[in-house]
Amino acid sequence: MHIKQIIIPAVSTVFLFSCVSTKKFKQAQADYATLQGQYTQLQGNLDDCNTAKNQLTSQKAGLENDIANLNKQIDLLKQNNTQALKQLEDMSVISSSQAESIKRSMENIGAKDAYIQTLQQQMARKDSLNMALVMNLKGAIGNLDDQDINIKVDKGVVYVDISDKLLFKSGKYEVTDQAKVVLGKVATVLKNQPDIEFMVEGHTDNVPYKGNGVLIDNWDLSVKRATAVVRILQNQYGLDPAKMAAAGRGEYRPVTDNSTAEGKAANRRTRIVILPQLDQFFKLLEPNGGK
């Protein structure tokens, strides 16, 4: 009985000690895993820091190179400044009349530069007005076939080309009723621009005119067609006759070759030319003409 009493407590003590050691071991393993994770994270942070350090080193080298280049530029500017001062000292010996001449030349350069800028602004403004006029004309006329009417800007001038197929019968100069509707739409836009002046040009193909009456040739036919359009714009739509001109070009200003039927049809046209306001530019030139 005494032996059992001694062995049982001893075995219990060993078993209890074994359980406690296992728990501590597992806890140590968990702590190690945690530390291992922290170590890995710190190692990654260290790598990031090294990368950033390398980038900063590279940027620093670039900045130092930029600073060196800027210092070279400063030195060059100092040298140029010194040379300019030397030249000014040399110029101090010129006569008063020469100095005044140089002064006037510098003033003229400045004035001409300002004048050129003004001209450029005027030309840009004119281009904008021309584009607005074209858009208004296209909007007023609507979806008319491009083969019958074409509106464009070329070298700062607005052109409205209307085919003779729409305006006139073959060999005639009486404007058709359909064409009068189109001319009315064009007149509405032009009437809203009272300062605009324009020319109506008649054009034919190269087929000789064979009609009878007062007309002799394509010259006559083109002129009569132009004046017929001008009279309608004046009498039916109230455009100022002082702002209009009529001209006949005959067959001598074709837009394409007359060797085909399509070419002849393209050349038979009436053109409304929105004349550039040259007087505005002449007025612009007058104050500067004496400089």
Could you characterize what this model shows?
With 291 residues, this protein is an alpha+beta fold. The chain has two domains: 93 residues; 152 residues, OmpA-like domain (60s Ribosomal Protein L30, Chain: A, 2-Layer Sandwich). The protein is built from seven helices and five strands. A five-stranded mixed beta sheet has the order 1-2-5-3-4. A hairpin with a 2-residue loop joins strand 1 and strand 2. Helix 2 runs antiparallel to helix 4. The radius of gyration is 46 Å and the shape is elongated. The model has no long low-confidence stretch (mean pLDDT 76).
Features of the shown structure:
single chain, 291 residues, alpha+beta, 60s Ribosomal Protein L30, Chain: A, 5-stranded mixed β-sheet, elongated
Our count of helices gives: 7
Supply the CATH superfamily name of the largest domain: OmpA-like domain
Oligomeric assembly: single chain
- Shape from CA axes? elongated
Tell me the major beta sheet: 5 strands, mixed
In the CATH hierarchy, the architecture of the largest domain is 2-Layer Sandwich
Helix-strand category: alpha+beta
